[in-house]
Amino acid sequence: MQRFQQRMFSGRIVAALVCLVAAPLARAEDNALPNIVIIYADDVGFGDVGCYGATHVETPNIDQLALQGRKFTDAHAASAVCTPSRYALVTGQYPARRDFWAPVFVRSPLIVDTEQTTIADIAKRAGYTTTCIGKWHLGWGSKQPTDWNAPLVPGPQQLGFDTYFGVPVLNSHPPFVYVENDRPVGWTADDPFVYGQRASTRRFDEKFGLSQIGGAKRAHEQYDDEAVGTVLTKRATDWIEQQAKTDSPFFLYLATTNIHHPFTPAKRFQGTSKAGPYGDFIHELDWMVGEVIAALDKAQVADNTLVIFSSDNGGMLNRGGQEAYRQGHRMNGELLGFKFDAWEGGHRVPMIVRWPGQVSPGSVSDSLVSSIDFAATVAAIGEQKLEEDEAPDSVNLLPALLGKPGTVVREELLVSPAKPGNLALRRGDWMFISGQAGGGFSSKNEGDHGFGGPAAMPFTGQVNSDIEGGEIRPDAPAQQLYNLKDDPRQAKNVIEQHPDVAEDLRQRMAQILGR
Q1: Is position 19 annotated as part of the catalytic site?
Q2: CB distance 81 to 111 below 8 Å
Q3: 126-175 confidence digits (pLDDT tens)
Q4: N or C: where does the chain have the smaller number of CB atoms within 10 Å of the terminal CB?
């Protein structure tokens, strides 16, 4: 019933806005629908961008995007983990409904059901030409382990994307190659992939699994870690230039590998920040954003293009992140926790929307929004009716984009950390977490890749009432409740003071999951 009411609410909002937006939406006679560009950055935290308070890195292009559009201060990924977060964006469904918590790797088949409606399917129904460029990280094929010597089907093209080019898994794990549509670039039958063989690829700190799959030497030779950002940018800008010459509106999902470890910016960005290689990688990301915007300007389609910039989860306290932290950079600002955590630092992320003539420039909104909502928003823009099983957890963001800053579009959001026992539910100002600590990485040793959780608090200087001396207090409550309006840093767990609120959210969480 709530789902039905949510759809009806969104429909009424869109109807009420018809008079407001109809004329601007039809401003281009040969292309009534706006082009849509989603730039989904990797591991960019709430404090990684200048317009969100970063002082050790410079992001003039992203900052300019905020000046030209709307900056959201309460935007979240539906998961604090890369793969589930992308699943939510692509399908508009909470990953917890499918029990998705962890990243997938080289052996994983496609985790999205090809019968499931995706954001690309919705765009195509509305008449868009669609592409995905960049990090996929949702699995390939139907077998386990994935056969990298056969056509990688099903994949993006079976989920509504007309074309795909990019990094098939992620830049920290194999295979270290590019895939175009359903084949690794440079692959030939006489030079196959071989599981268990060391790959012919460069070594970097926090680049893993080099011996998980090798062979395919020519395919691996196409991939240079320090050139990935440049290659993906060139693909995206070339595609924009080509599509701008056609009569079809275009939908570009650009998923960058920046700023996921290993931190491998091109030479021209190395040493340019005050946050080590971590910050240098942010500088390259900002350049990438600038190049995409410049391509839209050059193609004379910027005025009819909706651009969304956001991130798949919060910043990570890996080795590169620890070095940046020592230098004074705070990747998640003053928020508690890091990537993988149910705490705010794990999933509250930058989100900037530019849409000339539609979104008020220089505006700031504290509306609760999420990248899981992009699917329903594309449907609303394309005037596509969604059935009950299509993007079931996605909410139309148009009222929050076109209306006054702070317009309420969703009252609650279910957020998945790495550990199922720490599932979180946000409602209004309240955040309920179903377990102790953040539910993310918890290695106890500074310098470890997985350093995090309570053990990292002496290093970060963060404070939480359940944690003392880098350990969970023996008398700490089994679950957590925070009022984010009063306590945005989540310094004090108030579950014992508000047991009725916690119980209400606990029951609502079970209801969402059908338990």
Answers
A1: no
A2: no
A3: 999 999 999 999 999 999 999 999 999 999 999 999 999 999 999 999 99
A4: N
CA distance 85 to 372: 8
On the 0-12 / 13-18 / 19+ scale of CB atoms within 10 A, 187 is: buried
Q: pTM to 2 decimals?
A: 0.94
Catalytic residue among 82, 173, 220, 283: 82
Q: How many CB atoms lie within 10 A of CB 466?
A: 18
Q: Exactly one of 56, 76, 137, 260 is catalytic; which is it?
A: 137
Higher pLDDT, 29 or 247: 247
Secondary structure element (H or E) that encloses residue 499, with its range: helix 499-512
CATH of the domain spanning 420-512: 3.30.1120
Active site residue 82: yes
Strands (E), 140-186: 163-166, 179-180, 183-184
Please give the structure tokens belonging to residue 411.
């009252």
> Could you report the per-residue pLDDT of 285-343, keeping only the tens digit for each?
999 999 999 999 999 999 999 999 999 999 999 999 999 999 999 999 999 999 999 99
CATH ID of 2-185+225-410, from 3.30.830.10, 3.40.720.10, 3.30.420.40, 3.40.228.10: 3.40.720.10
pLDDT the model gives residue 62: 99
- Around 307, how many Cα atoms within 13 Å sit in the side-chain half-sphere? 30
